[in-house]
Structures are given as structure tokens and as C-alpha cells.
Amino acid sequence: MLDDYSLPEHSASLPLQNKLALITGASGGIGRATSLALARKGCSIAVHYHSSKDKAEALVSELSKINGITAMAFQADLSNYDNVRKLHAEVIRHMGHPDILFNNSGTTNSVIGPNGNIEDVSIEEFESTWKTNTGSSYLTSLNGLYPGTGGVIGPHYASSKSAMHGMLHWIAMRYAKDGVTCNAVAPALIIETSMMANPPDHLRDRIPVGRFGRPHEIASVVEMLVTNSYMTNKVCTDPRDFFGDFFAAVFH
Ligand SMILES: NC(=O)c1ccc[n+]([C@@H]2O[C@H](COP(=O)([O-])OP(=O)(O)OC[C@H]3O[C@@H](n4cnc5c(N)ncnc54)[C@H](OP(=O)(O)O)[C@@H]3O)[C@@H](O)[C@H]2O)c1
Is the keyword Thylakoid assigned to this protein (predicted)? Predict the structure, then answer.
């Protein structure tokens, strides 16, 4: 809760020392960069991963070198709701209740692009994408108490991400009075990630700054969101808002 923070006078910045952040998909590019950024401000990190055990363990050992914080890895396939519940319970059991929840994990599944054929995405794939990207975020938010359009991937990914916008707006409005801030980041296109390891060159031309983004540039936006004491119910998108698509929710 916001009241738990003692804000220095004239500062809108919430201290992260002795806080705990659960970061889903911390084994990926943006999750890793955000874990390191928050840990450097004194925040302990529950590092979630799905299949990239080596990356998660390497991150935990890197985080453990930072003074005054703790980090542990937790495995879960978030397309399975029982696993989402188990992840939450395990984090609480080993590290305590998270103060910050970054619903960052996500999957594209098939990439058919704007010119693909709709029948190339089966209903099974559509539903499984939605469960991983949206349903699991709903459940983690329910458990703790927490978005874009995804247009360059396909209809399954796009709908799974845009649904997060509606969820964000409701949660932010409902829980603001309880001291919970809830905001989203909808970045694009971020390289040094598994899902955007090699984006085609022509996509660069659609990005206002004329280059692809890097994970630490998104981590710094998330850091701003989790340390700002006032802003809520906002989606930080890329400037032209045509790719945006995932969300970070923060509750204090
Ligand atoms: N890169 C971009 O340009 C871009 C643009 C817009 C939005 N985003 C969003 O940014 C977020 C972070 O992605 P990223 O860019 O850092 O890509 P990434 O490097 O591919 O990371 C994706 C993360 O999601 C996890 N994940 C995938 N499927 C999962 C499942 N079934 N259960 C649990 N976790 C699962 C992966 O875990 P494992 O590796 O351990 O399997 C990995 O940690 C995602 O929500 C993505 O949709 C990215």
C-alpha cells in the first residue's frame, strides 16, 4: 500500500529497498533487464521462468551479487492455471508476499504477420495464447491483487494483448483507493529478446526513432512506473501505438 512508503519530502519516487518484485518471464530479454534495474535499487526479485532454466539460474547468480537483495528462481508454465496458482504460493512460501508484480511473460506462438491467413491460427492455438498472455495475468493479479495490440504477430496474440488493456483499466480504477497503482507498458520492437531475435528490416522503418529498442530501455520505463507514487491507469506505448502489446502491473 502506498501508505507503507515514507516518501522523502518533495519526492514522488517510492523507494524500492526491502521490497519484493515478482517478475514473470524474467528469463527473457525485458524481464532480465527489469530484474537487474529494480535489484540495483534494492528490490529483491522472484525470478520466474518457463523453459529457460539456465538463463534463470544465471540471472539469479548475477542478482545475488547485488548487496542487500535476495533472488530465487521459480519455474511455471503459465498456460496452465494450476501452475499460476502454484507459482504464487511458492513465491510467498519462500520469499513472502510480493510488493510489485510485473506480468511480463508472453508468447507469440505462430507468427503469421499482417498478411497471414486467419485459418493459419487454430482455435486451440488462439486459446492457448490467450491463456498464457492474458488469463495467467488475470490470475496472478487476482492472487496478488493488475496490455497493446500485437498486430505484427497475428490475431491470437493481438487479442490476447489488447484484452489486457480492459483488464488494466478496471483494476486500476477499482484498486486505486486501496493504494494500488496499475500501469502498462506496450513496447515495440525490442531486440535481444527471444521473440524478436531477428525482426525483418522493413519493420525498422515504421519505428519513429528509426531503430529497434533494447530491453534496458523498457526496464527504465518499468522502473519509473514502479517508483512513481501517483500515476495509475496508463498504458505507455511506443510513440505511434501500432505495435504495442503487453503489460506490467504494479501494486504497492
Ligand atoms: N520484444 C518485443 O519487441 C516485444 C514487443 C511488444 C511486447 N513484448 C512483450 O514483452 C514481454 C517480454 O517479452 P520479451 O520481449 O522479453 O521476449 P522473450 O525474450 O521471448 O521473453 C519471453 C518470456 O516469456 C516466458 N514465457 C513464454 N511462454 C511462457 C509460458 N507458457 N509460461 C510461462 N512463461 C512463458 C519466457 O520464458 P522461458 O524463456 O523461460 O520459456 C520468457 O521469459 C512479453 O509479454 C511480450 O509479449 C515484447
Answer: no
Classify 150 as helix, strand or coil: coil
Q: 122 CB under 6 A from ligand 1?
A: no
Task: Write down the pTM of the prediction.
Answer: 0.85
Q: Is pLDDT above 80 for 250?
A: no
H or E stretch covering 217? helix 215-227
Cβ atoms of 125 and 112 closer than 8 Å: no
What is the 246 CA–ligand 1 centroid distance (Å)? 9
Task: Look at strands 20-23 and 184-186 and give their pairing.
Answer: unpaired
Is domain 20-251 annotated with CATH 3.40.50.720? yes
Of 157, 222, 153, 140, nearest to 184 by C-alpha is: 222
At 20 the pLDDT is: 95
Q: Is the CB of 196 under 6 A from ligand 1?
A: yes
d(CA 26, CA 228): 22
Quick one: DSSP state of residue 80? S
